[in-house]
TrEMBL record, chains A, B, C, D:
NCBIfam families: PRK08763.1, ssb. This is Single-stranded DNA-binding protein. PROSITE patterns: SSB (PS50935). The lineage of its organism: Bacteria, Pseudomonadati, Pseudomonadota, Gammaproteobacteria, Lysobacterales. Residues 128-140 have a biased composition (Low complexity).
Length: 156, 156, 156, 156
DNA sequence: TTTT
DNA sequence: TTTT
């Protein structure tokens, strides 16, 4: 039986465009870097900015939506589960990382599908930067196998 | 300005007794290991248990309360902020870790102030704190019992 | 498109046994009265108890589980949606009410599966339902105990 | 002792400009109407929009900020406590209502400080529509007593 | 009454 | 790396 609640609730902005990959079975896995900034007073009473960068992963249908609609700078509400994981790096050393596995996502007003740093955002056709973001069921062939996670031993 | 929401909501059980330290200024810092277990179906439809161990830190007054009342096995509700941090180990290598900095805590029924590791736990009588565990009708009057389902004009 | 988040997170105790009905299609609808008590200081700095009674509704499978396992006094975690509704009473007057439509429920330690309509609940020994309350190390291995505070190079 | 969690988490849009009043002691009380819209499939599988209108109340400093920065159409994150209350109407009948007493607020991207029905929003000086929104401490005299809640017997 |  |  379930025994516990493990819930993260985040509202933040993407630091980069999402990255979407597909499993061999065709399931989308989209990862984003999400900044949440808060302010507290330090010991001297001065406001101190504090930014946390969350690695958020979206699977399946949510992964397709996130990959298609989110962009660098987008503001988004994410709800998910905190998961602590590890992998062995190329140097043979175990590395630990934490990710939020999203189960709910909501785009928020504003920057929406716009883009980030450059001025090219409005002119950049969606397909240009997102060939790997197409829904796999729309392709007759599965995505290349090297789009998987094994390519560089680093899961994020 | 604050820009974002970073909130963790956890209900779980302590894997060990809390560990409390004090800063030179006398502020309590209590750390616990909190297990949240959930169940999902794997690809074969079989229920699969999944336990995440959260490092939760309580500062100040909350740290004193957590250190005093929580014990190995205690069930607790925790709300806090997810914080990603790092330190340099004795081997000179940077290590990353994630912690939940609690800003709200609530002991849940059951194991309560009982405890774990030591034998001293039973010496603190359960009844001391038990009155608060009585049925909530002592907190205030419950809603009238007659607004039940049998009166079909009333939906609650 | 979805436009918004409407989420209630409650931890409280039942004021009465649940009431379960079934639709003609056989779907369970269980309703409970849930007390959440908090304390704040009044203007004079004295702690003031404040209890809110929530009407919580569970549909379908969740309704069956809630009806079967919850009892007067049970402590429970509920997550759901806040819904404002109205009905016309027998006196022809529109009545407004608010309910929480649950989409997640988690029984909490303590009164747990005990319960039942009558006064026999206390006669059912605590241990009967206690196995699930055992220390979580049976769910999986707890983190190593030696990463305590005494090793000052390690912050957790 | 606190005994329970009573938390609402909302992301929605204001249906109207906020309304701010001041207590005789000079504390701001701001009320908004917040729409949260979600979609579910009805029994026929067709998406069905569902909008809930929340009455949200902000006290004190938060009330001043909400009154000053929120506008009709603004998207906002609100966290607060669900409170069930009643008042006796002019017809002598008890009326029940539910409100969310906010303890955290976060403006979200987009409509921001804009507002208003027409296109004049960017040209509309703040003071024009918000004389009663000025922070009370900036006035030497307290706000008129009839700005209180007794004026029309209706608390929202 | 909002929003998409 | 985001955002205000």
């Amino acid at each position: 039986m379930a025994r516990g609640i493990n819930k993260a609730i985040l509202v933040g902005n993407l630091g980069n465009d999402p990255e979407t990959k597909y499993t061999q079975g065709g399931m989308a896995i989209t990862k984003i870097s999400l900044a949440t900034t808060s302010v507290r007073k330090d010991r001297d009473g001065n406001p101190q900015e504090n930014t946390q960068w969350h690695r958020v992963t979206f699977f399946g249908k949510l992964g397709e939506i996130a990959g298609e609609y989110l962009r660098k700078g987008s503001q988004v509400y994410v709800e998910g589960e905190i998961r602590y994981d590890k992998y062995t790096g190329q140097d043979g050393v175990e590395k630990f990382f934490t990710e939020i596995v999203a189960n709910e996502m909501q785009m928020l007003g504003g920057r929406g599908e716009g883009g980030g740093g450059g001025g090219e955002r409005m002119s950049r056709p969606r397909q240009e930067s997102a060939p790997q973001r197409q829904a796999p069921q729309r392709q007759s062939a599965p995505p290349p196998a090297d789009d998987g996670f094994s390519d560089d031993d680093i899961p994020f």
